Amino acid sequence: MGDEFRTTLELAAPASQSVDRELTVEVGWVLAGAFDEVDRRALALARARLAELVTAWFPGFCWRFPVVWRRELRATSPVEPVELLEAATDERDHGRWDFVLVVTAAALKSHYKPFALGAPSSALDAAVLSTQRLDPIVEDEQVEESERIEIIARRVTALAMHLLGHLNGLSHQDDPVDFMYDLKTAADLDRMHRLRDRERMEKALREVAAERLEETLAYRRPGLARKWGARLGFGLRVLGREWRNIWEAVREVEPWLFPLRFSRLTTAAFSAVLFLLLTAEVWELGMSQPPLRVALLALLILAITSLYVLQRQHLLRRHRWEVRFSEQRTVAGMAASMAVVLGMATTFVVIFCAVLLVSRLLFTFRLIAGWADLAPTWQHYLTFAGFVATLALVAGALGASFEQEVYFRHVLLIDEET
């Protein structure tokens, strides 16, 4: 990244006299690509209004809104949100910000909806928003320039507040005037002007504004992050401090929907199941295994396949612990790892139940007794289902490795398409 592509500005929200200077919240803005004069003026106005809004609502914090303009991030429309988010997190780490909002004039690619205005990622403490559908000339070409600027600024302010609410754990509201309303169109943003869950957001902000672990004296020593013992200790301390935030990020991902969202994983797993169910030797081998051995094998395969998927999809490649500690990146890595493990475990449970159901309904007692050379009991059926599900999970992991990396990361890192 050359210096000619990077412009940094600073905006500090006016703070009241009662502000605790230790409770500083920095929300960095990354402007990605090119913007016309109308967009630039509207974004400057939106930042100022957002600063006034949060300062009035949360006067106990010192707010800062630095801006970085990344002109080289010119993407063809539509652009993958996760690609912009990952570029923005580099700026977040560089500036030591608490949150980062990346703004683009390009349309965002949506995988679940007809279109997306924004996309938050609680795992990354980042969100992306697009100004393309916020411009009123999309619907009415007769709008004056001053009115365009006003409408875009109002909508960007509302959308930024909505995304910040998501990053601080707020849920959707049914009230269309609330900033956390589950909006459907850009016009919905025009009605938003209040925030119901201010107390909940303030509580979350106090945790965010607290000193991060890497800022403590224990982890400031140069070169400490290169030591395995220190990295392990740092990770364990982050887990102890941030387990609620990690779980919240995992919950937003909904890993229990893995079998539905990743078709290649599911197809590969159930193709293996069909083959295994029709093989007599598999029935004999599976039903002859001790239940404890099958259980231990299933746990081992779950760990191996989860690690394999994480490596193949490069979900940990952005973590640069060997350079310096980062609590935010550690939380993101733990959340992604936990989501993959839970997703693969869900796939195992689905396969296990399917094998158990099919084996009981379609395969007769006489047929199984002939194949397995024993009188099958419920324990044999359960053992066989676990054995087949374990083998099918390996096939599923191979299938998951062929999922498009950008889509896999989209599912793992983005909470929703707003």
From TrEMBL:
InterPro entries: MetalloPept_cat_dom_sf. The keyword Membrane applies. Keywords: Membrane, Transmembrane, Transmembrane helix. The chain crosses the membrane at residues 292-310, 331-358, 378-400. GO terms for molecular function: metallopeptidase activity. This is Uncharacterized protein.
